[in-house]
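User: I've been going back and forth on whether these two constructs are worth ordering. Before I decide, could you fold them both?

Assistant: Sure. I'll take them in the order you sent them. The first construct and its structure tokens:
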Amino acid sequence: MRKITYDTSYNSDLTTGNPSSNSQKENIVDLETSKSSNAKTDKANVEKSFAVNKNQKQPVICIGGANIDRKLYVKQAISSGTSNPVTSSKTIGGVARNIAENLGRLGEYVTLFSVAGNDIDWKEIDAVSSPYMNLEHVTQLEHAATGSYTAVLDQHGDMKIALADMDIFEEITPELLKGKINMLRQAKCIIIDLNCPGDTVDFLSKFTMEYNIPLVVIPVSSPKMDRLPSSLDSVSWLIVNKDETETFLNTKIKNIDDWKQSVKGWLELGVKNVIVTNGAEGVILGNENGDIRYYPAIHTPEVVDVTGAGDAFCSAVIHSWLQKRTIHYIIHSGLVNSHKTITSKHTVRQELSAEQLKIDMEEILNEKLS
């Protein structure tokens, strides 16, 4: 296993080229399910918790991508214009879906709003996702294929190219959401990723402002930053990386002063709470009270797979915030969940629960948490 530095760049429809362990390079089709008795017990416990939580009237609603992630591992130096021998793997992904599963495993009652094709890819997503979230509001379309993301990694584990077939998410329109308006009104929090069209993001921005519902925005890549709402006053949380921040604010983050200034820039645009991540350097939090705090990343010398690390961070932050934890707890829960996720081969780690996250935090932070 290669020893590399942990990079917290956030999972999106374009992964940021982080190295992966050579131990990944097996011909597997990993649908995030395990046949072991322990995995079955864990799944049964989560399903029981989910069933109990369904009686709640206020779900956390996640809106955005649900797709199949494929990785092709080239066995030798890549040759263009000819066939290259590879091994491959397949997992269930999508930013909104990944966040929904993390939150479901953490005990939140979650509903996913998305679109998918009427195909085998969606059936696989459904099978993996349904124990942890309500999928009744996923719209299946006959004329489109379920979203997919394919990454090609060289023999060192570095990503050489990524191909994202995400056009189907343009169908998450304001008109589609207006048909689910009664459900949206019940939300205790709405999380949207920027796979959704800009008109839809604007619609939700105005909707959450009108009904006083917290809105969390998760960008997925720098090219989609132009989908942010025209007004950010409605945004309770924005979790954004360095590249996305540089793109939107038209700036360069070269040092910690630039980094802090970028956080201030987001706050000046009306965001109530913002986290700007900067890979292995850590994260900086800013809030509407003017507090700006730096948190170092957790050093992770042995990385299995960075896929889903950013979604794990976002999910734990949101969960801890909904549980009204302190800022110290909120940020560290995200850093710990992200750290533990990249030491797993799964996009969403299979042992995750609210109790396990607390245990992990106490172990890594070396302090007792109430």
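The second construct, handled the same way:
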Amino acid sequence: MTRPGTGTGTGGVGEPDPVAVRRELLDFLNEANEWRRLFAEALGTFSLVFVAVGAAMVNARFGGNAVSVAAQVIAPGLMVGAVILSMGAVSGAHLNPAVTIAFAMRGNFPWNRLPGYVMAQAVGGVVATLLLVALLGRQGDAGLTLPGTGVSLFTAACWEALLTAGLVTTILGTSSGAQNVGPLNAIGVSAYIALAGLVGAPVSGASMNLVRSLAPALVLGEWTAWWVYLVGPLVGAVVAVGFAWVLRGPGGGFYGKRAAQGTLGWLWHPGPIDYEVRGGPSESDEAPRSR
């Protein structure tokens, strides 16, 4: 019995079978699973925005001392790590238009799927903010990302670009070996978001995410400094793609694509799996054996 993707096709026993490999790659790109990927992006971004915006709103709702500043910036990082581990295999867990654009620029994600991902992220962010307002009421400017006192819009935009460049560099680096479906990506990205938040929140709010900032701006009708959180993350993402090219050369490799697009339909499938067809154990192999 051979492993999936191996056989006697052209290379003998144990060598890759081009036909099997081709079939699995086609499964990986199967558009029938796109709705699952879009749902994962919407749900994952909802979870991120609910925590990021909700921490500030809860703090304001209960007197201003209920959730510390440190907790407010660490919580989104922890949530991103949880989403990567739970849904990264489905969609790649981008949760951020800047990340999706960076993956596309690296050649790891198809440009024609980018609008769907960005729309799903936007829907998740807006729904999260609407739910928070419905549950807690509007709490002034709580939940918005705004430049700190005395910080110019230009400085805030540069700060956002710098922080986002670091975030996307971390994501592209830890995803280059398809680690988006394992613990290393989750740990690295979560740690970066938390640390960047601790340093950057007083300056610009440390958003690093268009949806995290623009969704509450839309729901709350407050557009002060909105362009900072559009231009900054986009510039940072482009810079990070340049860093990735310097560090690792061109993108578009097999493992980078797996990390950016998820492995739904490639390494795992919804529903029961036919182990016999895929070269795994048969029912007789799994049956209890007497000694």
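Notes on the second construct follow. Residues 98 and 237 are 6 Å apart (CA to CA). Confidence is low (pLDDT under 50) at residues 1-11, 178-182, 275-291.
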